[in-house]
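Before the break, one more example. Copy the sequence into your notebook; we will annotate it together after we see the structure.
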Amino acid sequence: MSVQLEKTSSNKVFEGELAKYRFKSTALGGLFANFNLFIPPNASETIKVPVLVYLSGLTCTEDNGAQKGSFLGPASAQGIAILFPDTSPRGAAIEGEDDNWDFGTGAGFYINATDPKYSKHYNMYTHVTLELPEIIEAAGLPIDWQRQSIFGHSMGGHGALTLYLSSTTKQYRSASAFAPICNPTKCPWGEKAFSGYLQGGIEEAKGKYDATDLISAYKEPDSLQPQGTGDNFYKQGQLLPENFLKASRDAGYDEFQVRVRSQEAYDHSYYFISTFAADHIHFHANFLKA
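Here is what the structure looks like once it is written out:
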């Protein structure tokens, strides 16, 4: 893939490097896309390391998880790289895409849009699963793409679970999510997104972009999901982890294959995420380093 990858910043952290890159994205209709990539200190020209992909939530960019997630220290200790993509295309200039915080810019929902208004640019599914690995591999960065796992928060938790569960090639070895949108075809955020991005609306999303629908067809899942009981979005019915848990148990998966943990009084913020960040890194290390 002939893509000019530009490094725009670099910081040494936990003996590794956190670098920001940008490139012109074909998947996002020729717009510039940014991502952050943490490379642990054990990586070299001859040693490739496994990678965790972190997907952020509504209104976030590629910076939120990298700066506030508390992932980098544990990842450095485990010798795992972390890729932080953006949450949507930027600068598409589509009428209405900046009218609401929960749709459009910053709210790509990690799907490929089929409505003609959005289908040129809003292809975050392809951007994350295919395009970013291809351009990073072509740039010669020391990532072993045979050892990938994925995790995320809120909308990004939805993305992590659905990208994991919908992969016919088992691209990711494991998945985890902080307070994910578990059943988006039945919550206001998901209904709004799917009705806007998809020509077939909610019906098109079922069985394709909804983790609660997808879990019953997946073989031998490995996922971890903490959920704070003090999370206002949980209380408002946006997240619906109980629906995902029921579908998992109905499909015969036990608490070792699909772990949904209730965390007393924690909310939806990065204080919650950073508290359990090391748990997630260690969970994925069991699969990435096997």
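The CA atoms of residues 114 and 198 lie 5 Å apart. The chain has one domain: 6-288. Try to locate both features in your own notes.
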